[in-house]
Specification:
single chain; mainly alpha; 35 helices; about 0% strand; elongated
Amino acid sequence: LIVDYLEKRTSELPQSAQLSAATDEAGDYNDEDEGTGLGTGGGGVYAEGPRIPKTAAEATAAAMMQKELPPTSSAPVFQLMTELPTILNTNVEHAEPRVRSLVAQAVGAYARYATSLLNWLDSADDVTDDPSERNKLQLATEHAQVGRRNIHATILLSLKSHLDMKEPSRENNPSAASDGALDDTTGWRALETNLHALASYVDGCVGKNGGGGSYVHEEAALFDSADTDDNGWFLPQLQHCCVVHVNRHVRAAAAAVLGVLIKSCMRSRDPSHEDLLVEEDSPFRVVLKETLKGTLADNWSQVRMAGSVLCRRFVLALLKIYKSRNGDCEDGADEDLTTFESAGGDLVPMLLPRMCLNRFYLAQGVKLYSQETWKKVFGSHAHAADEDGLYTSAETRGGGGMGAVARNAAPLCRYYSKMCDADNHAVREAGCQGIAELAQKVGHHPVYAEYLSPYVNTLLQALLMCFHDESWPVRDEACLACGTFCVAYAEECRPELPTLFERWTEQVTDQIWSVREDAAVALGDAVTAYGPEMLEKVLAVIRKKLPAAKDQPPMSREEYKKLQNDVNAHTGNQVYSCGSLAPKLRKSGAARLGCSSCVVDRPKQPWEATDGALYLIRELCIRFPNIDDTEREDVVLGDKILLPLMTELADVARLSHYPQSDDLRTTLFKQLPQIAEAMGKRRFKGLYLDLFIELISKNLNDRHGTGASQLSIHAAGQCCEEIAKLIGFGIMRGRLEAIGCDDAFDSVMEERKREQAMIATPGHFIGKEAFSPFGPPVGSH
């Protein structure tokens, strides 16, 4: 109630009092008001409610709708301002954490109203015509400032006393013991909420630099490089909380404090305060650098998100300062560098790799926020705003994001290689994706490709290590990345080609279908890179693996279902928490902790090798279908090679002595339309359609009672529809009518029409624009 009351009183003050600290002299200060990043003191990014920051524009629009009703000296709000500091100071270490969190919000509201009063009295000449009333208002405002500073002193005292407590180190506290797990998940006494309160207080200090109420101006001693007993603890302890502290909530809260301190430096509009961010030897900048180095690579997504918010605020502040000091045209600036590189200086080799990697991080909040940050930093130019990925353009200064990445290839590649060996499987997966992007974007660039060339071997070694990872998404991404590198840097990758080919052929028979598919994609890339010599090797693999399903041991569906539901096979196993990092997923060959236990692994099945060979056939058909449409002129998959393979595939797909045969046919029906389209209407209809028409008809309605799965039946129907679109519905119906399956075809087509009608009817499906309130619209770029 107090927070709502004070916020309403603040909104009743003139706009000049509320927003003077948020706008510069030209009125163009456009920093996003994301509050403290903790849901306390306005806005919030991840602690309370949807992860959608409240922007300054939205806050301004809401404030403009309020009627201005400045207070009088006898207004009840001043009595509240007199009594409130004692109440807040008493409860800042309350035993109940929910009370402490509300105290933190009240602190922010108090500070904002008190400093807004200062702005109002200092900027308005017509506060009142009565000199006596003005003196009373001035006195009441001064009392409010005394209370505000008293609250700040209490918070700092409590914060320092908590920081002096002994805590377990992160290295010796893997949350294995009950006491360690408690400390790592429940907060550290009142330390977290003290940091919330401090962040709210700093965020609420919106006063002018000269007139009081500016935090960085009032507490300049806290940023002083002199190591005194009174103030020297502040910045080092904040860094300790962000990087070293065992509790993840404390680390996130401390990062939020640093974020609002940056905001305060920008609000003051004082060059000396901006120097705290710009000067390389500034203690505050040093703390920010070390904090970002740790939080942007933290094992907890919560802390990584807090670091991402801090990173955006710091980088955008540096860019604004650089542009304001060098002018819009940036006279004398190095045109070979991006503005980010010029403004960041020594921070770039540390920040850029982390900013790049977090665009691929598994947690969607971190990923989307980091991608948006990248656009804000490198996509602000008109020529690069609509481009994807690393953002580059011939018209963009310094080559945009791609130019920055290429010039910093050395630290970037070292960081990516290190992350491929991280303990967290999500980080290893992101590392592989980042490496693949380098090969795809930088490796094919006519100017920047040579920048990456010296580090290809280092990156390949990191990817080869990930081939043995027990996390299949890591293996999957490593597989794709290696294929992409072979296309971009064929000669540099040739020494490792025997090893790569061995790994790819192992993965093409993996237990995970997506790993098999992506291994086939990688082998297709290898054929594109190395031509006929690699084609012969891949064809040999197909000829060997394609008939493997014939060796699948026979098993009835009842036996298979009984095996899946065997109580003894699922009893007494280790149980894992979804929110825990232990002891789930490990890197192969190392007793490291991660997520998704693969200690117990089932052997590969023969039919899976056939499934992998099917994906290989698809890749070759799509890439090298004929002489007029091939990725290499010296590689063409003619009918002399393809027809025997497709005949063998049709024969193997007819097998039904094992229950997984339905899965194999589902894969076939999903890939066949792509193969047909690559071949062309005449070629597929003349030579290959009759090989599979009976299989399609058999699964279309399962009238023979083979017990086909719904997935297989649906895949057959979709396959039938797509092939009919290619060769003509009349021709397809005629072929099916010849084997007595025209009724099933008509039923499938009617069902497809009903589905399309439902999609077109409002209310049946969520529209693209409203797919999710937490992410970009579907189909957006």
